[in-house]
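ESCALATION

Customer reports they have been waiting on this structure for their group meeting. Please prioritize. Original submission:
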Amino acid sequence: MIEGAFWIVLTGVLVTASCALLGTFLVLRKMSLLGDALSHAVLPGIAVAFLLSGSRAVLPMFLGAAAFGLLTALLVEAFHRRWRVQEDAAIGIVFTALFALGVVIITAYAGQVDLDQECVLYGEIAYTPWDLLLWGDQSLGPRPVWILGAMLAINLTVIALLYKEFKISAFDPAMAMSVGINATLMHYLLMGLVALTTVASFESVGAILVVAMLIVPGAAAYLWSDRLIAVLGLAVFFGIVSAVAGYFLASFWNSSIAGAMVVVVGGIFLFSLLFSPNQGVLARIYQRVRLSLQVAQDHMLLALVRRAEKEVGCAGLRPAELVATAAVWSPLAQLAFGDLRRRQLLAQANGLVELSAKGQQVALRLLRHHRLWETYMSHLGLPVDHVHDPADALEHFIGGELAAELGAQIRDEQDPQGKQIPPSN
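Update from on-call: job pushed to the front of the queue and completed.
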């Protein structure tokens, strides 16, 4: 039993690792749907290979799948480039037509050969320990392990040897052509590898589930890093984790092993979508909250410094009035107000809130940034009554270097409304 579990998990690891390597490039090239198309469109190739050979021999299967995989890529390119069909529509037309053709062939003629349409569509990785590769009378272990191991070795070898070419072709095909890399050849090589990997995975995870394993690990990895080598490593790692955890989850649920593996990798993607540090949902919410707090604080500081500038001897505002100037959601405005007090930028006396000495420096710097932007845009030809709102949006994002550059270009002492621009010190 333990040995059988080992072979099942190893098969899952080989499938997910092979698919993750290639799927990463499909995701980067925005060709995820083409991976779906290839995984379905090779079905008639497998069916025809079965009908012609009358066996499940590896070579006829691979040849049939590769032929229809390349045919799919060629047809999609022809529809898109030559006949001006939108790329997503071209993919949908080709893969649905070929997949339907494969289903028709299987249902019509599968009784003549040992071909199970349920196996092709859904796979059953649990049978792996009994599907042995024989050398004479000697068993060499499960046949899917040998096939998938060879496929993983081929994928690793090709990607290692042509890593630079795949990388440049994925991000900038025009640049690849300019430096002598045949981007078209790289495209069809990738499509051929995807087709072969897909058919190698059919008996283990099926045509439908292989789509998830081909795309989801790469998509999840892309949320964690912008470096290709790191994305490839993470995609393979996520695939391996899904294979191992999926087996135990299937044992617990008493369900399809391949299906449980996809559930796990889907969970990994959901976790990545929520918690990845740069592109995750929670990270983006946190960044937006921080930005809203910064904008609210800037508005309150500017409201106080403008009041002091406008009404000499009455430089303060009541707390409620000051919070209302934040122009953000009220609870966020209250948080921003409390943070300003903790940072000792505000002082309160006689029920009014004023700027502290430290707050005065920060507020004058913000006011300088705002009026520099207004003056700069006025110099560009923007009407005087149209410069306030753009400056209000940009004043929060000026660093010291940009402020110095603007100050060097603008030597005016007053903004377009005739108000004094605070000095840089």
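Sent to customer with the following note: The longest strand covers residues 138-142.
Escalation resolved.
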